[in-house]
Write a structure and sequence with these properties.
The protein is mostly helical and 446 residues long. It folds into 4 domains: 144 residues, no CATH class; 55 residues, no CATH class; 72 residues, no CATH class; 97 residues, no CATH class. Helix 2 packs antiparallel against helix 3, helix 10 runs antiparallel to helix 11 and helix 14 crosses helix 16. The longest helix is centred in the N-terminal third of the chain and has 24 residues.
């Protein structure tokens, strides 16, 4: 069985080493000669390469001890690849390294580095049994490793799930935060956070970890999650605790420039105040679906509270229609304020909102009692929210005889409702109202 080594691998190995006379370069050159001239059993190559890594780790430790280096030499995957790819069966290298670890006295820091090499070799060779042997060795020895070595194992192997026991031990250390930096791989930071959450650790630990690694979005998401879990009751203390969680989350979202999410979270915080405000009225505004939230808007005392509910549940203009009709047409609320709050939320109020309100007016059996307020609402809508003549026609067209055309923009209506309602509107003087409105706007016709 021949060893394999392509020219591209040779280029990689040469570029990854700083000097042509370095030990790594010499080993690769020797192996190249054997590849070209002889047939070598893969296990012999594995033994040689394993011994090379063993000696390199021991030499590197000696250099640290005598002050010639500050840290133990750690091979990156790019540096390991040309060595491991010398073997037609890379997993054999992992097996040989494990043998050396079992039969030789190896300093802890060297052991960890060699385990990283063994894991990479087994992974490169797609050997599940080899990987399991490496993980088993770690499982039997990890309690002897200090924090920095535990972190090295996680970084070197990338086995965040399989090494969850290593992660739990690392997280239990009182000095773990000294090792946490934003430069850690995103996957490792996510795995650490998942372990903290899965173990039910205190929010303090989760917060410290996120702040140290600058994972502000993840911390904000966790604060929102915990806030929603607490919303099983509406007592005052719980509401204010949840409100604070939402406020803190919104600030973190802003830090990550998640402005829309931050705005939504602030609305949820304000919703807690609305809930407390309407406690004695028996109005519930939390934990609702969209339909129930729209219904709750009809019972608010003012437009500001309705706007908070709409914003917290991300409701569109259609959800405002029942509230506008109940508060401004049937009630005595200020139409200007309601429409202003809606415009602030949407930016532009579509003309068909007036059509939807008109539909409710036509269906209302008490319409005669609120006709004056409907006229006032229509005037305010025209003056402040009709941007084009087309919008004006949509609002006044049904009053001037173009009822079927106008009502086509609204949801389907019964033909009898349009005809009978239109006749009633004429009787109530809405045709005259429409003409007067046009005169005020210096228009003769639409």
């Amino acid at each position: 069985m021949r060893l394999r080594r392509s020219s591209s691998k040779k280029e990689m190995s040469t570029s990854s080493l700083s000097s042509p006379s370095s030990p790594g370069s010499i080993v690769l050159d020797v192996m190249s000669v054997y590849v070209k001239s002889k047939e070598i059993h893969p296990r012999r190559v594995a033994v040689a390469v394993a011994k090379f890594f063993f000696d390199s780790a021991m030499v590197s430790r000696t250099e640290v001890q005598v002050g010639h280096a500050s840290t133990l030499k750690q091979f990156s995957q790019e540096e390991l690849t040309p060595y491991v790819d010398l073997l037609t069966e890379p997993a054999l290298l992992g097996i040989e390294i494990l043998k050396l670890l079992r039969t030789s006295h190896v300093p802890i820091e060297c052991e960890v580095q060699l385990l990283v090499v063994a894991h990479f070799a087994c992974s490169r060779g797609v050997s599940l049994s080899g990987l399991e042997n490496v993980l088993q060795h770690i499982r039997s020895r990890y309690v002897k490793y200090e924090d920095s070595l535990l972190l090295r194992l996680l970084l070197g192997t990338g086995e965040y799930q399989a090494l969850d026991f290593v992660m739990r031990r690392l997280l239990s250390s009182p000095t773990i935060m000294n090792l946490m930096t934003p430069e850690l791989p995103h996957g490792l930071r996510q795995a650490l956070l998942h372990t903290v959450r899965a173990n039910g650790d205190a929010l303090t630990m989760y917060t410290q970890l996120c702040m140290r690694t600058k994972m502000y979005r993840e911390l904000a998401d966790e604060l929102v999650r915990r806030a929603e879990i607490r919303l099983t009751s509406v007592d005052t203390e719980t509401l204010f605790q949840v409100m604070q969680l939402y406020i803190d989350a919104s600030r973190l979202y802003e830090t990550e420039e998640c402005h829309r999410t931050a705005s939504l979270t602030r609305s949820k915080a304000a919703l807690m105040l609305v809930q407390e405000k309407y406690r004695d009225d028996g109005l519930v505004v939390i934990n609702l679906d969209a339909k129930s939230a729209a219904q709750a808007m009809t019972r608010t005392r003012n437009a500001e509270d309705a706007a908070v509910i709409a914003s917290a549940y991300s409701l569109d203009w259609e959800a405002w229609v029942p509230a506008i009709y109940a508060r401004c047409i049937q009630g005595n609320a200020d139409s200007t304020m309601f429409l202003s709050m809606l415009k602030r939320a949407l930016g532009v109020i579509p003309a068909k909102l007036h059509g939807a309100v008109t539909k409710l007016f036509l269906l209302d059996p008490t319409k005669l009692l609120c006709a004056d307020r409907f006229r006032e609402f229509t005037k305010i809508f025209i003056r402040n929210h009709c941007r084009t003549q087309k919008d004006l026609k949509a609002v006044l067209g049904w009053m001037l005889g173009d009822r079927v055309t106008m009502m086509g923009d609204v949801e389907e209506l019964d033909g009898n409702l349009i005809r009978d309602g239109a006749a009633l509107m004429d009787l109530m003087g809405f045709d005259t109202f429409a003409k007067e409105t046009l005169e005020e706007m210096s228009l003769e016709t639409l």
